[in-house]
Amino acid sequence: MIKYLISIIGPTAIGKTNLSIQLARHFKTEIISADSRQFYKEMSIGTAAPTPEELSLATHHFIHHKSIEDDYNVGAFEQDALNKLDELFKNHDIVIMVGGSGLYVDAITKGLDDFPDIDPQVRTELNSKIEKEGLESLQKQLKVLDPMTYETIALDNPHRVIRALEVSIGTGKPFSSFLNKKSTKRPFNTITIGLTAERSVIYNRINQRVDIMMDNGLLEEAKSLQCKQHLNALNTVGYKELFNYLNGDWTLDFAISEIKKNSRRFAKRQLTWFKKNKNCHWFDYNSSLESIIETIENEVIN
Fold first, then answer.
1. CA nearest 135: which of 152, 118, 160?
2. Integer Cα distance of 94 and 90 in angstroms
3. Of 3.40.50.300, 3.40.50.2300, 3.20.20.140, 3.40.50.1980, which CATH number belongs to 4-113+181-301?
4. Is 12 annotated as a binding residue?
């Protein structure tokens, strides 16, 4: 019997969580999260993790299963998620995966890419540069050496920027040229469903979500994590801006406006990444559940 992974992708705040729950209930199955920010149990509000009510409607995996203190990466997630899928497919013909982290989605559906070994001195020099000149200097360097990666990775994540740069510098070839070189054969078929909307709609939804997060206590959540702001998991949109406010560098209004701006930029990078998937079935975020289910069932039948 062929097994199917329904992968739901799209920009932040587009409605992926709601759709995943509706599909899980329809197909009587479970959900795997591929949202790398929602792994951490200390970060609920700022990552728009499913609420307790939403979690009660369908069984979820990889939501709040790690601490921000843990060393967890895409390679570890790939292995954990594949093991979980093996387990779930024993009782289900269809499993839902949802998330906006393109690299983590691709790790499950296609496998991680192989990169050549790089002289450790390259990373040492990049770490020295970021300490002396700041992250922006590395971002500008990446934009010159590899514009495609610059448009798609999380630019506010120094580890991602340094990794892309060290490969580009160490090999003389863009980091992006090593991506998608192979596609590991998985023991399941993937059906990808993408949600999208006009850019103005996406941006309005993001702005509204940030306001709701603030009303729901995002500032208090950031305060509780301020003493750990040096951790990589917290170097992310929604938290780093509020840390600047709490540290006395920004006003609260400016910090909120920066969260909205950086979330919009993040959504743009998500779409750039996901649009590379030529096999995705794209739907407007307002599309009926019935039309999406029909598309999935036609794929399963065929």
1. 160
2. 10
3. 3.40.50.300
4. yes
102 carries a ligand binding annotation: no
Does 3.40.50.360 match the CATH number of domain 120-178? no
Question: CA 26, CA 22: separation in Å to the nearest integer?
Answer: 6
The answer on whether 272 is annotated among ligand-binding residues is: no
Give me the sign of the Cα torsion angle 199, 201, 204, 210: negative
Known binder of ligand: residue 248?
no
Q: 192 - beta bridge partners?
A: 7
Write the pLDDT tens digit of every residue in 67-92: 999 989 999 999 999 999 999 999 99
pLDDT for 253-284, tens place per residue?
A: 999 999 999 999 999 999 999 999 999 999 99
Residue 169 labelled as part of a binding site = no
Q: Which residues contact 290 (CB under 8 A, 6 or more apart)?
A: none
The whole-angstrom separation of Cα 276 and Cα 28 is 30
Please indicate if the annotation marks 16 as binding a ligand: yes
**14 a known binding residue?**
yes
A 10 A CB-CB count for 264 gives: 19
261 closest CA partner among 147, 156, 105 = 156
